[in-house]
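User: Can you predict the 3D structure for this chain?
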Amino acid sequence: MKEYLDKLISDIGYEEAARILEGYSNQKREEILTIVSNKGVHHLPDSLMRGEVVYASSGNLDFSSIDRVREQYVDILKMLSFELKKKKWDKVYVVPFGHTTLSMQIKQLVYRITRLETVDVFYSKEFGYRDLTIDQRALIVSE
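Assistant: Here is the predicted structure, written as structure tokens:
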């Protein structure tokens, strides 16, 4: 790192290098949240755990009755609601591991609290993990 700083200073001078570096340090850090619907179901590469990472659930949930499912989902959504209200998030990623309906509920909760469309982490055997974004507002307005 010192080599890069020395080169920068020799190329543009100390005062200009200090001005540039100060500009970077004053930039607002983007607040990013990654919500993993269920921990332990699949391996998620570290590169996809961006910003703060929250695991909505872990392991097997109890699907013995619809009432039990609802109870667990409500507990999970309350915990996530607290996390979502902690900060003004700039971007929220959802990793839809586990049961589909839980991920659907999480996505809807994120939108209702933050008004942000989530970035959904999509997996395919063909090309691996990719971010999937769809601007639904643009779709609605264009009709």
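The radius of gyration is 20 Å. The chain has five helices and five strands.
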